[in-house]
Amino acid sequence: MPKPLKLHLGCQEKYLEGYVNIDLPPSEHTAQIVRADEYADVRDLSYDPETVDEVRSHHMLEHFSRQEALVLLARWHRWLKMGGIIHVETPDFEESAKKFVTSGLDDQFALARHIFGSHEASWAYHKDFWSESKFAYVLHELGYGDFRFEKFSNNLEQKIPALKGSFIAKQEKLLGKLGKMGFNNLSNIACYAKKVVRDVDYGAAIKRILGKSLVGREKKILDVWMEDISGKV
Ligand SMILES: C[S@@+](CC[C@H](N)C(=O)[O-])C[C@H]1O[C@@H](n2cnc3c(N)ncnc32)[C@H](O)[C@@H]1O
């Protein structure tokens, strides 16, 4: 039995055994110590169609423009074997936005960092939103299915399940975050899906998805976006 090919993209400090861990080189990091098997820009990676068993990525997809992210999701779909898995985690924009409008200024600074990125390196900016409904729509268009979502934060209940529903956990929720202890109430979403359709017209699917971001009479902008992705999927 050949060893499964599992990619962990944007791994940074989280080295996963059994995966090919890939990230930008140490020279691109200012505050973290990156440990990878390969140092590369994930936009430059290339694998043969239907050779990859899993593509996994935590808190990286939001760092790409809407065109780039769609190109990556389409390429990952092409590389995956039928039934192959995509496991992508990002900040949950929808839940974060809900928290933002009901929070005081102190918590809004932390929430805005979660929404817009940490800004300590040229890659550390978030360029688009991801949420359960967006993942489901975009990934369906690109030939993925069999979705499962997990929504979570690093609050006490998540880190110590035994405290679920307890008085202490409720206090922590009220307080919002216990930042110095590594706890926070910032919302994340993990999306698990499989490649369920083989022949997808990626260009047409991406055009439909990008068209949703047009406001008013902006056909020329769609042309520019499509020019950006031309030859990349
Ligand atoms: C917010 S960190 C997340 C790190 C880790 N996955 C985690 O969840 O803790 C984003 C990572 O994506 C990587 N990244 C961003 N753009 C990239 C690119 N174009 N190619 C490769 N890695 C990239 C960064 O170098 C960084 O390590």
From TrEMBL:
The Methyltransferase type domain, residue ranges: 38-86
InterPro entries: Methyltransf_11, SAM-dependent_MTases_sf
Signal peptide positions on this chain: none
Annotated Pfam families: Methyltransf_11
Superkingdom in the source lineage: Bacteria
Listed GO MF terms: S-adenosylmethionine-dependent methyltransferase activity
Name assigned to this protein: Methyltransferase type 11 domain-containing protein
The species this protein was found in: Candidatus Liptonbacteria bacterium RIFCSPLOWO2_01_FULL_53_13
